[in-house]
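QA checklist item 7 of 12: single-chain prediction sanity check.
[x] sequence parsed
[x] length recorded as 198
[x] structure emitted
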Amino acid sequence: MEKNEDVKGNRFGRLVVVEEAERGKYKELRLICKCDCGNIKNVSRAHLLGGDVNSCGCWRKEFKKTHGMSHTRTYQTWENIIDRCCNANNDRYGDYGGRGIKVCERWKAFENFFADMGERPTGKTIDRKDCNGDYDPKNCCWSTPKEQQRNRRKNKTVQYGGKIKCLAEWAECLGINCSTLRKRLSRGWPVWRAFQNG
C-alpha cells in the first residue's frame, strides 16, 4: 500500500478505517477506526498498515479468556492456530496468515473449536488435510508427526495406479528405499519402472 494512499473504508483485521485523526505527539499520522465489537480506536497509521494492530484490544481479551482449559494441550493448539494466522508478529505468520491461511469464524471461539475437534489425542497435533486450505472443521484432523510430514507443501507427490501419495508413503507401501525412488525419478525413469522392486 502506498505511503500516502487513502485507506478510509479499508479493513485491517477487526478494524475498519473511518477517518484520519489529528497527528500524534511525534507528528505521526493517526487513524480513527471502528472495531467489529463496536469500539472506536485511535491508531497509528504505520502500526495499522504494518499489521501490529488488528483490533481495539478485544481480540487480545478474548484470546486470554479462561475456559477452564487454558493449560491443556488442546487450548494451546487453538491458541497457536489463532496467533500464527492473525498475529503479524508471530514468527510463523509468513507461512500461515501471511500467505492467506485463515481461521474460520466459528473457530475464533475456543468452545467451538473444542466442540468440533475434541480433546487433542496424545502424540497428535492439528493438521490441515489441504495444506493450502484454512483452519475449519472440514479441513482439519488430529495427525501424528509422520502423517503431517507426508502432508507438507514441499513434499513430492506421485500418481500411480490411480492413487496420489507422497514419495515417502509410496516407498513404505512398495518396500523400496525413498532415496532410491527419488534418484530413479530424478534420472527420468517412468513411474511404472521406478516403482518396480528389484
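[x] summary fact logged: Residues 66 and 110 are 10 Å apart (CA to CA).
[ ] second reviewer sign-off
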